[in-house]
Structure formats: C-alpha cells, structure tokens
Amino acid sequence: MTQDERWIAKYNDVVEFIKTNHRNPSRHRIEEHDMLNWLKATRKRLNANELKPERVDLFEKLLALADENKHVNQYV
Fold first, then answer.
1. In this model, does residue 18 exceed pLDDT 90?
2. Residues 59 and 15: beta-carbon distance below 8 Å
3. CA–CA distance, 76 with 74 (Å, rounded to integer)
4. Which of 47, 61, 50 is nearest to 11 (CA)?
5. Residue among 13, 1, 71 nearest 37 (CA)
6. Which residues does 14 contact at the CB level (< 8 Å), separation at least 6?
7. What is the pTM of this model?
8. pLDDT recorded at residue 76
9. What's the chain look like in SS3?
C-alpha cells in the first residue's frame, strides 16, 4: 500500500466516523486516538504548507465537516 493509498484510507475512515457519529474523534476514547492524531498531524502540515496540493482540497472539506459537527456546550 502506497503512502497516498494509506492517506486516502485514513481520510475515508475519519469522514465515515464523523458522518456516522455526528461528532469529531475524542481524545478521551482510546479507540479514536489514531483518527484524532491523524487529524492533528495533517492540520499541522496544512498550516505549515507541507501538505501535498492534491490533498489540500480534500482535507479542507474534512475540516468543514468537522466544524459542522463540532461539540457544542449544553450550557451556552
């Protein structure tokens, strides 16, 4: 499996998780740590302009989806 195939597989896993659970991966659940770490690392690479150009659009769509499903405090 190439690096691009692994990236796409992880991307699809995260998108499916967010659409299924209507929330972002949690740092408090061990089974979600891989997805959360991938999101943080990829966001860091995007901000440092180190992300491959073909991945930028896909990741920005994922960030928009994550922002739509952001945790909302029940007391606000």
1. yes
2. no
3. 6
4. 61
5. 13
6. 25, 35, 38, 39, 62
7. 0.87
8. 59
9. CCHHHHHHHHHHHHHHHHHHHCCCCCCCCHHHHHHHHHHHHHHHHHHCCCCCHHHHHHHHHHHHHHHHCCCCCCCC
